[in-house]
């Protein structure tokens, strides 16, 4: 059997484009589906019947993550890669609009804690995989030293928290044979606010091509954790 990857937030946008890239590379892909009513994953399944598995998944919910892991475990005892892509965005947390902080809690739960849930649940499968690779889609928004934003506090804070979580995971798991990828996809015309953005520098497919290359290839220095963007520039975080 070829290599296998689990990808979260796979319904549309960047996540769906990453799924397509990995399928084209011959991976068996377990695609986390949050919105069953959104039909693109189902359409893709018709083209890659033997290589694409669609699994219901809400990374913000403990039971959903556990159930998704059980579905994967029913088919295989190992995976090679976990791609934590699922995320939500918005303007929650403006200092004059603190009533939006409830949405901010949802961002933390998905953008940071969701990734931790996934790593925790899938570690037994990754442990038996060939690559043991953990990939995380972050953002320049989470970089403290180059912060340029003055509103929408919570989304950047959630990505900063994700970056710290990845750093701590790296310290714990790299010595045990795991490799890490921390990725800033650039300004993508994404669906993170609910509908596809009409502004941005990159289409999801453009960033996904860079992401897949970064995630799948070996690095010269695996012992150093860096955040790369889709043009392979290094970002502080």
**Terminal-residue CA separation:** 37 Å
| CATH topology group | Rossmann fold
How much helix is in the residues? 25-40%
Shape: globular
- Name the CATH superfamily assignment: NAD(P)-binding Rossmann-like Domain
Poorly predicted tracts of residues: none
The total count of helices amounts to 6
SSE series: EHEHEHEHEHEHEE
The total count of strands amounts to: 8
Output the structural class.
Answer: alpha/beta
Our estimate of the beta-strand percent is 5-15%
Structural overview:
The chain has 237 residues and is of the alpha/beta class. It has a single domain (4-235), classed as 3-Layer(aba) Sandwich (Rossmann fold), CATH 3.40.50.720. It has 6 helices and 8 strands; from the N terminus they run βαβαβαβαβαβαββ. Strands 3-2-1-4-5-6-7-8 form an 8-stranded mixed beta sheet, with helices on both faces. It is globular, with a radius of gyration of 17 Å. The mean pLDDT is 90.
What brief labels describe this structure?
237 residues, alpha/beta, Rossmann fold, 8-stranded mixed sheet, 6 helices, 8 strands, 39% helix, 15% strand, NAD(P)-bd_dom_sf
Draw up the topology in text.
Blueprint: E1 4-7, H1 13-24, E2 28-33, H2 40-47, E3 52-56, H3 62-73, E4 81-84, H4 101-127, E5 133-137, H5 154-173, E6 179-184, H6 204-216, E7 227-229, E8 234-235
Parallel strand pairs: 1-2, 1-4, 2-3, 4-5, 5-6, 6-7
Antiparallel strand pairs: 7-8
């Amino acid at each position: 059997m070829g290599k296998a990857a689990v990808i979260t937030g796979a319904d549309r946008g960047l996540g769906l484009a990453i799924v397509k890239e990995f399928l084209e590379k011959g991976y068996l892909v377990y695609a986390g589906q949050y919105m069953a009513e959104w039909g693109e994953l189902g359409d893709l399944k018709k083209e890659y019947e033997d290589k694409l598995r669609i699994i219901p998944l809400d990374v913000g919910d403990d039971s959903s993550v556990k159930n998704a892991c059980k579905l994967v475990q029913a088919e295989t005892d190992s995976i090679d890669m976990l791609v934590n892509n699922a995320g939500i965005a918005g303007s929650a947390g403006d200092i004059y609009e603190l009533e939006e902080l409830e949405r901010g809690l949802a961002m933390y739960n998905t953008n940071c804690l969701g990734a931790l849930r996934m790593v925790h649940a899938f570690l037994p499968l990754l442990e038996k995989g060939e690559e043991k690779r953990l990939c995380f889609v972050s953002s320049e928004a989470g970089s403290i030293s180059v912060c340029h934003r003055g509103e929408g506090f919570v989304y950047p804070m959630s990505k900063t928290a994700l970056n710290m979580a990845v750093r701590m995971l790296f310290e714990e798991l790299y010595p045990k044979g795991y490799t890490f990828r921390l990725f800033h996809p650039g300004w993508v015309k994404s669906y993170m606010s609910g509908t596809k953005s009409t502004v941005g520098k990159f289409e999801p497919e453009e960033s996904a091509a860079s992401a897949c290359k970064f995630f799948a290839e070996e690095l010269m220095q695996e012992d150093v954790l860096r955040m790369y963007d889709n043009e392979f520039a290094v970002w502080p975080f």
